[in-house]
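An instance follows:
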Amino acid sequence: MTRRLLFFLLSISLTSGITSDVYGQSKDDNEKIKSRLSAFFLNYESDKDITTGQARLVKYSIDNRIKTVNITSSNIFAVQEFTESKVKKIYRKIAKALPKPYNKYKIKVVTNGMSIEELVPDMKYTENEMPGMWGNIEYEGEPWTCNVSKPNLITHGLSNRHISLWASHGIYFDQKKNRWKWQRPNLFGTTEDLFTQTIVVPYLIPMLENAGATVFTPRERDYQTNEIIIDNNSSKAPYYTEYEDRGRWADAPLKGFAYHNGTYNNSENPFEKGTARMAKATSKTNKVSAAAYQPNFPEAGRYAVYVSYQTIPSSVPDAEYIVYHKGQETKFRVNQTMGGSTWVYLGTFEFDKGCNPYNRVVVTNNSSEKGFVTTDAVRFGGGMGNIMRGGTTSGMPRCLEGARYSAQWYGAPYSVYSGKNGNDDYSEDINARSLMTNWLAGGSVFLPSLTGKKVPIELSLAVHSDAGYTSLSDSIIGSLSICTTNFNGGRLNSGVSRMMSRDFADSLLTGITRDLRAKYKNWNRRFLFDRNYSETRVPEVPSSIIETLSHQNFADMRMGHDPNFKFTIARSIYKSILRFVSHQHGRPCIVQPLAPNNFRVEIIGNNKIRLSWTPVEDQLEPTAVPTSYNIYTSMNGSGFDNGTETKSTSHIIDVEPGMLYNFKVTAVNRGGESFPTEVLSAYCAPGAQKTVLVVNGFHRLSSPAVINNETQQGFDLDADPGVTAGLSTGWNGRQVNFDKYYIGIEGPEGLGYCGNEMAGQFFMGNEFNYVRTHADAISAAAGYNVASCSSEAVETGAIDLKAYDCVDLLLGLEKNDGHSLVYYKTFTPTMCTKLSAYTSGGGRLLVSGAYIGQDMKDDNERNFLSNVLRLDYAASDTTRTEAVSGLGMNFDIYRNLNKEHYAATSADILSPRSPAFCVMQYADGVSAAVAYDGTDYKCISMGFPFECIKSQQQRRLIMKGILSFLMK
């Protein structure tokens, strides 16, 4: 069986009832086998591991020819921790339970899509079972970085695997034209330099890291334009402080980082301008010496944290770093025996504005090994480009620049980024991506004969979007992959065959084709090119370029601009990397789960709440089943903690009265952790008798408005900019040429051409955390408890609206736009039925959203608006004027694209149906909100999202007024 086939071999699907597939057994034998196996699982006890349900027999089969008994158990059996001895014990007990002669047969138990022996940590296949091409080459030391605050251990993912990954190009300085420019053309609102980052940064990198991988990116990954550097050479207390309790700080022997204001010239290496510090390590945990790096953040927000240190002969493999972020602390261990004198990424965190000890990084000299801990500068935020070329910098955030400039900022040797002696930035940027990988990995087990930083990078991947071109305007190009095998005698630096790169390229292409066809039906597998490309020739580890789609082709980009597509293709790439890396080392792997849904937070007693959710099945991946969940908690204004693990799908928490709690949940298994749910909130007001339920109905992620008719194609950002997942920098400018006649022409005359007016700007999309905004405003009104849930929980009946005194349904930018790859709707038929029943029973209802009227089109939907919300949809307000008045106040709402909050670029004008009346108005006097003050029920409907009100103070006052009206 080939490795390629093994990458995508699906385990047997589980059935709902107990079935058997037996040959030659009597009916009596079958009954005995079924009865005894069922009894085994029903009576099974496993060291208190299985606490969330009863393991059961699903099916079994017997093959008398090869004398085997194959047993499939329910997924709950996989929750326990397996060891070699436990597996042997299970098989002994099953054999003892089976009647003769089957008790002498070879037994195999499958759960969660894998045999139980494959679930043993560090299990390795024999050479005959899976001949991994790395052979005996294996990195067995500590990982470069490790977040030790995580509550889960990943045993079947990518732990201690180091990967180099980058998103295509980036802006560069063109010496011939004496200006900074993109490396690829402006098309369909973006450029490849920007577009591929919208796949890699928000989706692919987190998926790999959630699987346990350490990911190096030659291009800056952080969207934060602020950059604060704290360094021992230039920073004094309170910004840089040393503490000595056990071990003295002294200058380290090598040159260190030193920062200076302004720009950096070509070849200037910031890591050769200063000094670093060192202290003798101690195993004591109660007495340590430490160095604290406490920046003065110019604004609150998310900042990547990078540390630097020196690697010396006596460096320790587990230096302790503590990141304090909004009052929480997350601990890391960093292997300082590798990767010294460069920036080392720890993670991205939320920090408060200002300078205080609750937002800083501390490095201690605690270690389990003898030696020294060194420390140099700490960097917060990606920052703006500061490399001078042609007398100017790019003027762009560093994350949008090519890798050539990051390489210099990272302290790489001049030869890494200036192979053309600084005279051809375009070529130097292409090569710098791979050369940075070799520079870091040199001296490791995977690049043993190169000099470098000894980071055990074993794989590199370049993500592009130039898969070809077609003159057929509605035809999908699809994906292609590239590798290079005919170079250096067909060998990589470690001596292994370059055919590993071909296998990798094939697995990427096969996985993408399979997953996209399964999800969206139509996708093309183009070619696997074995050609001489820098990004696949230069890396001395297995490498590939994946051309995800064609950015030149409208049909591809119609899918590519949809965030749901980006998630799907990123998950496919992650899975291919997982399988390739695991199988080349001869090890089994498990795919991380999908995020739970049906999330709800209920108040169930005096200061007691219950969180509940439902796991989501991945129909393509039998192993992607959760075995536990992490609950992340934030209280009032603090950051989220590091998570609490539970093996149940519900969790009860005692809460403190008067404290606003925020929660999100992830699903976990041995292969890693899912993305989180939306954020939900709970608040128990002292003495409160009434509870408000906040319902999150804003789930939409979509591309901009699509134009596709006989003569025109493209994306209209003004009509509807779509909804990205969180912050995005993918837009370059508005499309200006929609004429299909000019397909294939590059430049202003060509179909799809767009401007540059949005380049370098960041725009916020759906952060899935607006329940907390509503909950904050409700809690400030005093006297009301707050519970919350996803709209799914209402529609499935998991939450009964009638149990609540008031329902606050937030709909944000939810709507059926007609082009999204996932169906969204403000008020589904089920939700209409639920709300109709709730109001007919005297309920109090608040609804807000930008499309609550516009999205309701047929007669039944319009009847819901008129009969329940007591309004008619009049028109859409697209003026983007931010001023609104009502409830005795004037306030502003987000109407224009910005980096702080998603914008309601369109809002609904709502006409009241008598006796309902207008309670808010847009700047031109038209109705923005409608109230119904009936004796049967009360309702307020807002034609813009409540959370788009800019001022927290005004949100609180407006919510107080709304609740006073509804609850009277």
User: Anything to note?
Assistant: Confidence is low (pLDDT under 50) at residues 1-17.
